[in-house]
Structure formats: structure tokens, C-alpha cells
Amino acid sequence: MQRAIVVGGGLAGVRAVEALRSKGYEGALTLLSAERHRPYDRPPLSKAVLAGDSDDTTVDADWDALRCDLLLGERATGLRLDGPGAGGVVASTAGDLPFDGLVIATGAAPVTLPGDGRQHVLRTIDEARDLRARLTEGARIVIVGAGWIGAEVATTAARKGCAVTVVEAADTPLAGAIGPEVGALTAPWYAEAGVDLRTGVKVAAVEDGGLALAGSPDGGRIDADEVVVGIGVRPAVGWLEGSGLLLERGVVTDASFRAFAGDPVQDGAPGAVRPDVVAVGDCAAWWSGRYGRRLLVEHWDTALNAPEVAAATLLGQDAVYDAAPYFWSEQFGRMVQYAGSHAASERLVHRGDPAGGKWAVVWLTGDRLDAILTVDRPRDLVQARRVIAAGTPVDPEAIADPDVPVRQA
Ligand code: FAD
């Protein structure tokens, strides 16, 4: 490989650049990114940056030592692939960029609501700074979506003295991410923080000065000075349409992050993979051998660690990513952490009383620990993560006792 291009300058992009160099790649290297900023960390945007405790989250990278051409403020618009393994050309606002190795790391973009009213999303540092300036005392802030981002924005807005309403279509916060039973345990946090949580409410559109609600015969409306929309993201893969790469919800890859061109022979089987094209981070739907299905993980830990494997793959080395997903969120003064995947779990076990403030839940299949969610119990998280990674059995009775460490049976 002599000419590598990384498209997307988020965490996965910069980590891919670093990994290529640290693994000995000596050829030309270009990072193309739509944002004009050098790669920066996003988790603080809804936390310290919004709160005004930080203004710069730039990733500490030595770009000179990395010998990487930075094309910032430039967008990839298309991809033309030559024969398998022969590279191709990234079409971009900076012109055509030929490559023989490509890392796709274009991340994800927020979903927005219909309507002409002003709506804020929170994905970039510019958006965080803009929203921060509007979180003034007494401002009526209406947040659509009681997910991770919605809860974090509500936390900061309430602390700043805003009048905060959170509107959620499901019956509980976080229903999609952790299920309604566990999501319901977080609902009281909103009221405690003085936030008005309204569940089961569907929004039709964002209008001037507020929200129009759906299915409301009297033309229901919620007035707002600012509307923040946190209803999820979609992988930013529009520029790959027509390239021949297999796109589902994200770039479909094998367990080594090699992109499939056309239909995969069967799930996970490296049929028509491109050895010269890898995808990683929020835009990649990768095959997990651990879970026997494709995962699209929109979390920082994957963007941090998976590029090592993607870079090794591009350099022709054997490498497979098999980590259990990990995620954290800081909301309403609590540290919420999650590890594993509970999508196919048999049962939920509570560990500690939610009324006590510090608690956890675990998802089990037989005596296998599939996933854990902890609230202000970081030690549980660390212990459980180890058990999940090793795949060792647990004692389903003992794990319900918060005084007993999470450990192998
Ligand atoms: P991104 O960070 O999205 O970077 C992709 C880059 O590619 C962007 O700069 C984009 O502009 C660029 N790009 C897109 N399309 C093109 C194109 N066509 N051409 C060129 N460039 C393009 N995760 C956690 O685990 N815990 C948290 O607490 C947490 N908090 C978060 C808070 C916020 C506000 C946000 C937004 C995310 C948070 N995350 C959190 C998620 C985490 O930040 C992401 O998983 C991570 O940023 C993904 O990195 P990435 O490099 O894959 O994608």
C-alpha cells in the first residue's frame, strides 16, 4: 500500500491514522474531513462543553510526526472502486483522490424532525457552543427524545436555570437502548432535577416558537424558546451510494472491518470483501463473532479501539475485533455505565435497590452474563466487563446481591 486515505476526521479517523503509522505504514496518508476542526472528542460536548467547563476537546495528536495531509472542511462526495484489491478514487470537494487503501470513518449524523422552526442537534463543537449560548436562566428549552443525549442536555440546561421539558414518544426514557423496565427506573431523575418529562408524546413538527404535537385533535403544542432534537443518529454513508459497497444501516463489514462489495455470501463469511477498504466507528456495521450478528455501535470506546484492527487489516495483517461494547453517560449527577449486549438475553436481574441511589441490573442467559448497566457502581462495571470479556459463567443467585463482587462462579 502506497497511498492511504482516511475519510472522516472524528475519533475513529484520527485513531486510524495513528494506528497505520504505528504499525509501520510509510506511504502517503491523507485525512479528509467535512469539519474544519482538527479531530476532537464528542462526549464532552453534551457535558463539560455545554456546561461551560471546557471549550476545546481536540484530540492530542502530533500531525507532523504522523506525516498526514489534513484536508479539513472538505467532503467526500463519491467513491469509485477499481477491481478487488486495486483501490479506486474518492471523489471530493477537494478533487479526485486516488487510493490503494481506504478507511471509511464518516461517523453518523443526527436525525432531525420535520418543520420550519429552528431545531438544535448536538453532534459538533460548533453546535455545542451555539446551544450553550442559548441555555440562559429562565429560557424555555424543549428537548425531543429522552435518550442518552436528551438526558445529558436536560441535566445541563436544568443546572443553568432553564425551564426544561423533555418530550419522549415511548412510555419511558431510554426504552430503545435498555428496555422500558430499566428505562423507567431513570424517569424519577427528571423530576428530581426539576425537568418536566412527558412520555408517550409524539411530535409532528418543529414550528416557530415550539413543537406541534401529533395525534392531538386540539392541535396540541408546546411552546419553547429553543428546541433540541436528540432522537438518534444515522450512519453518514450517503456518499457511498452507487459505489458497489454493501450498505445496510452503515457500511457492512466482516469481523476485520473489511467492507463487502455486493452481497455477502452469508452472514459474517468473508465472501466478496474488499481487502483495500475498511470501515470503522459509528458508520460501520461489523460482524461480531462474540454475538453471532452484526453490530452497529455508536459509542466512543469502539471508535477509540477498533481502528487498531482496521489499520492492521488494511496492512494485510490478520486481525479481528471481538470486544464487548462499552458505553457511559453522565446524567442528573449520576454516572451510568453499560457493557455487553442484552439484545438476545433471557432475563434481567436487579442488583441493589434503585431507591438507594446506587444500583445495577444484569442481563443473563442461563449462567452467562450478557450485559450490565450500573448507576454509580463503577466497581461492578469493571468486574462485570472482565467476566463478559472472558465469557466465564456467573452464579445467577449471587449476582443479585450487591454486596458480593461480580465474578466468575
Ligand atoms: P464521528 O465522531 O461522527 O466523526 C465522523 C467525522 O466524519 C465527522 O467529523 C464528520 O463531519 C466527517 N464526515 C462525515 N461525512 C463526511 C464526508 N462525506 N466526507 C468527509 N468527512 C465526513 N459515546 C460514549 O460512549 N459515551 C458518551 O458519553 C458519549 N457522549 C456523546 C455525546 C455527544 C454530544 C455525541 C455527539 C456523541 C457521544 N458519544 C458518546 C458517541 C461518540 O462520541 C461517538 O461514538 C464517536 O464520536 C464516533 O466517532 P467516529 O469517528 O466514528 O464518528
TrEMBL record:
Its cofactor is FAD. Residues 326-409 form the Reductase C-terminal domain. Residues 4-303 form the FAD/NAD(P)-binding domain. GO terms for molecular function: oxidoreductase activity, acting on NAD(P)H. Pfam families: Pyr_redox_2 (PF07992), Reductase_C (PF14759). GO terms for cellular component: cytoplasm. The keyword Flavoprotein applies. Keywords: FAD, Flavoprotein, Oxidoreductase. InterPro entries: FAD-oxidoreductase/Apoptosis, FAD/NAD-bd_sf, FAD/NAD-binding_dom, FAD/NAD-linked_Rdtase_dimer_sf, Reductase_C. PANTHER family: APOPTOSIS-INDUCING FACTOR 1, RIESKE DOMAIN-CONTAINING PROTEIN-RELATED. This is NAD(P)/FAD-dependent oxidoreductase.
